[in-house]
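stage 2 :: seqdesign
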């Protein structure tokens, strides 16, 4: 398993919430780190790294449970309820992000 070099960036423009329906998994990070969507939106994550990653809810009862995604593999989930959905990569738990769902 390869690991990223350098330290994680915090407080950068990459942390600003972004509206849309896609999340890239690259350089051992979810981009954007905060995605804002409305209820009923289907969000698709695409792994652009050479290592496998997952999209897994941070809480034990969360709805996100992807399998290990190989390079270029995708995972989609339709958000039907408002709320903040924190998630991580279960293989690399330092990779965290969230989806904010509004009406």
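stage 2 :: out
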């Amino acid at each position: 398993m390869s690991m990223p070099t350098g330290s994680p960036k915090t407080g950068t423009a990459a942390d600003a919430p972004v509206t849309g329906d896609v999340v890239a998994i690259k350089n051992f990070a979810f981009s954007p780190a905060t995605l804002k969507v409305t209820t009923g939106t289907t969000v698709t994550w695409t792994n652009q790294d050479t290592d496998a990653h997952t999209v897994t809810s941070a809480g034990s009862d969360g709805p996100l449970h992807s399998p290990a995604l190989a390079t270029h593999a995708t995972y989609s989930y339709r958000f039907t309820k408002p709320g903040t959905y924190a998630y991580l990569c279960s293989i690399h738990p330092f990779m965290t992000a969230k989806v904010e769902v509004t009406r």
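stage 3 :: structure notes
- The radius of gyration is 13 Å.
- Strands lie at 18-19, 22-26, 29-31, 34-38, 42-47, 56-57, 74-78, 83-88, 96-102.
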